[in-house]
Amino acid sequence: MTESTAPVHRKPHVATLRRTLPKLLRDPLGTLVGLADATPGQVVRLNLGTIRPYLVTEPAHVQHVLRDNAANYTRAGDSMLWRSVRKLGGDGILSEGPKWEASRRRLQPHFTPKRLDAAVADMSRAISDAVAELAGPARDGTPVDAAAEVSRIICAAVSRVFFGAKIDTADARRVVVEQNTVATALRFRLLAPFLPDAVPMPGDRAFRRAVRNIDEILLPLVRAERANPEGGDDILAALARARDADGNKLDERRVRDDVVSTFATTTETTYTVLTWLFPLLEQVPDVAARLYEEIDRVVGPGDVVTREQVGELRYTRMVLDELLRAYPSGWLVPRTAVADDVIGGTRISAGATIALSPYVTQRLARFWDRPEVFDPERFAPDAPRRAHRYAYFPFGGGAHQCIGQYLFQLEATLILATLFSRFRYRLCEPGMPAPQLAASLRAGGPVPLMLTPHRQPALA
Ligand code: HEM
């Protein structure tokens, strides 16, 4: 047993079913932040009837779970999210143990700054073409849905990195749509993780059908690539050529699992977080004005945004950092305790579910000044150092830290720069949408936008 802080064994603060459930149903995220703010430095036990997870929000405690005593907190258990995630991605990069480790070793080299910088020109060209399709609706005054359009643009941007020219755009889009179904269908299981798979739940059928459809598109690509590896610098080609620790070619299931896990996390996390930016910017016009000014100055009426320009878009980067504080797509990071432990003086029993939440920790009033205010200045280069490394952990931490952080920063900057160098928008329905808690934190309804042309790209 290890200790995260002083070895005082105290009872956890228990949030009871009768008092908490109605509030949780009405405003789940606000209620969790309120509970954490009201119990500084403590672990909170959420009594939700048959499920009683520990909500761990104090940055030092988060560090204990994700890094210092990470061996005791596993994703291999039946905890809330991971069992469903494994049904989509198999037991590779999103699981635990030797298969996770092998997968991580295989995948990580494809997401380094050096590798991705080499793909910027292709990615940016794909984004430019995808954004150009918005000219029609902008001219005609037809509203577009922010989530659908951002997801379409991301899909175009990353398909090249993942699949080269081996998947056609319509199929890549279909994969993203099916992944979307997976992410929302599993929210019912997220709420009832104690139910065995044999007990049917709403969303199960849609989940299974979506996984089947994804396989129908991707497995033939995997097979073709393994049978006739034509090379190329895309991830599918690299995985099809990869060997396991014994020098054998990876079997088709492993290649499929690695591709699906990374493609799914890339598209899902990026489009859900970027969708929030549209309603948010309308609440903070001075932030929007500064963002537009920077993009106009650095990119101008350019056609394809370059790697050099990405480096100059410093305020855009601060906006993205703040967006990930306020609306982290990975809002819930669950673990299962392997052995008894003590966190912040509270005894945790083996088998207990631990819920970490970047959303809650990143809004704790003791660590963030006016946490409800969207203020990119928190991330200015000369801003005071954060009180604790784990007061901000949108990409997790420790051995499971996200491998896609650089990809996100690159593609998100390219997308915002390309989009706002050509268009402005207004919301068709003013105000912030209510969040929907699925595998990622998503806007609960459509976010219709009316686009207006700003500048047209210069002719090449
Ligand atoms: C807004 C963007 C993103 C956010 C907020 C995000 C968040 C996270 C978080 C919180 C974790 C930790 C999970 C845990 O500890 O259990 C994680 C892991 C991971 N992320 Fe991301 N992610 C993002 C983008 C991406 C992208 C673009 C990729 C593409 C490769 C990616 C791939 C992964 C993978 C494979 C893992 C598991 C790593 C491991 O367990 O070894 N993510 N991400």
Describe the structure.
With 460 residues, the chain is an alpha+beta fold. The protein has one domain: Cytochrome P450 (Cytochrome p450), CATH 1.10.630.10. It is built from 19 helices and 13 strands. The strands form 4 sheets. A 6-stranded mixed beta sheet has the order 1-2-3-9-6-4. The chain has a 3-stranded antiparallel beta sheet with strand order 5-13-10. A two-stranded antiparallel ribbon has the order 7-8. β2 and β3 form a beta hairpin. α1 packs across α2, α7 packs parallel to α19 and α9 runs antiparallel to α14. It is globular. The N and C termini lie far apart (64 Å). The N terminus is likely disordered. The structure holds protoporphyrin IX containing FE. Protoporphyrin IX containing FE binds next to α14 and α19.
